[in-house]
C-alpha cells in the first residue's frame, strides 16, 4: 500500500529532490515506493533560514532531499550544532535527539524534532527581549 498525498491548488512539495507545484485543482496521488517527501508546510527556503535553529533545520532538509552531498550537509550540520550549543547549552537534550535521528538516517524525524528546537529558540529569544 502506498502513501496517499492530496495537494491543494498551487501547493508545492519536494519528491526525491524534485520540486513539484500542483496546478489549479486539488490533486490526489499515491507514492508507491520509498522516497524523500516534503510538503510545502515543511519546506524551509535558504532565505527563511534566518536563525541558528532554522539553519540547522535547513541543513537537515538538505540531508533529506540531497543524499548525493551528504558529507557536506553533515559537516554543515555539526558546525551549526556546535555553535548552537555554545550559545544555548540548555538545548543539549533536544540536539541529542536530532543528532541521534541523523546518525540513524531518520532525516524526516530529525526535521520534526528540529521544529521543536526552533520553538525552543523562539521561547529563549522571547524571554531575553
Task: Supply the key terms.
Putative flagellum biosynthesis repressor protein FlbT 1; 16% strand; RNA-binding; bacterial flagellum biogenesis; mRNA 5'-UTR binding; Flagellum_FlbT; three-stranded antiparallel β-sheet; two-stranded antiparallel sheet; alpha+beta; 129 residues
The overall pLDDT average reads 95
The count of domains is: 2
- Total strands: 5
Shape: globular
User: Which ranges are low-confidence, i.e. pLDDT below 50, for 5 or more consecutive residues?
Assistant: none
Structural class: alpha+beta
How is the main sheet built? 3 strands, antiparallel
Number of contiguous helices: 4
Distance between the termini: 50 Å
Helix percentage range: 40-55%
Strand order across the largest sheet: 3-2-5
| Cα Rg | 16 Å
- The portion of residues forming beta strands comes to 15-25%
Task: Break the fold down into its secondary structure elements and pairings.
Blueprint: E1 3-7, E2 12-15, E3 18-21, E4 27-31, E5 37-39, H1 52-65, H2 70-87, H3 92-103, H4 107-128
Antiparallel strand pairs: 1-4, 2-3, 2-5
Helix pairs in contact: 1-2, 1-4, 3-4
Amino acid at each position: 500500500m502506498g502513501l496517499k498525498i492530496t495537494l491543494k491548488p498551487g501547493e508545492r512539495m519536494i519528491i526525491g529532490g524534485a520540486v513539484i507545484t500542483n496546478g489549479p485543482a486539488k490533486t490526489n496521488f499515491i507514492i508507491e515506493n520509498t522516497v524523500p517527501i516534503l510538503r510545502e508546510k515543511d519546506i524551509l527556503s535558504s532565505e527563511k533560514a534566518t536563525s541558528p535553529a532554522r539553519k540547522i533545520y535547513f541543513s537537515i532538509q538538505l540531508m533529506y532531499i540531497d543524499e548525493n552531498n551528504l558529507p557536506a550537509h553533515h559537516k554543515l550540520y555539526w558546525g551549526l550544532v556546535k555553535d548552537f550549543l555554545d550559545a544555548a547549552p540548555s538545548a543539549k537534550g533536544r540536539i541529542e535527539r536530532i543528532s541521534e535521528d541523523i546518525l540513524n538516517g531518520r532525516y524526516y524525524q530529525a526535521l520534526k524534532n528540529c521544529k521543536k528546537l526552533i520553538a525552543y529558540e523562539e521561547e529563549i529569544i522571547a524571554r531575553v527581549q
